[in-house]
């Protein structure tokens, strides 16, 4: 579904250029304003803060278009600050480090883990096993998913694996997110964090070659909004 830019102060390509370069590279809004100015577009850095809302819409489309991933999953969560409080990006990759899914949660508990796993299954199908840390909430989330699967007649449960070195892949993959969010010094709102993190994830997926399109990274990003 095409993203509508009705009411936007700048044309579609300018908005997407700003969003892509902000989520892909370590630039501030002021730096991005200077980059745009060199290309003949004068924009205040406060305005750039608002255009990141398009990132989550691009991410929704990218999530539908990505290549199939492996069935063994590695899942983990990290923490970031939003208005001085910790929130939790839940993330999962396959054994090759390809991104499966991601979601930002206000809580780290069974309900949040269950919601994440249900969303990941919807987009990626049934995994054979999921590698996690020793989190009781994540264990309870998979147990709840297995209970629901039994109700739908699935006789084979998802295997839970707790081997730390196997989860190194997803823990290393977190570095791309942390490296990009660290200069931001926290987010001012949960909605802004959701959109920005979704854009960062898509930029990472493009970098990892998770889409079939053979065009430059920025053009791939633009195509998701078409």
From TrEMBL:
Keywords for the protein's UniProt record, in alphabetical order: DNA recombination, DNA-binding, Transposition
InterPro entries xrefs: DDE_dom, Integrase_cat-core, IS_Transposase, RNaseH-like_sf, RNaseH_sf, Transpos_IS6
A UniProt-annotated Pfam family: DDE_Tnp_IS240
Domain Integrase catalytic: 64-225
Function: Involved in the transposition of the insertion sequence.
Protein name from the UniProt record: IS6 family transposase
Organism: Roseibium salinum
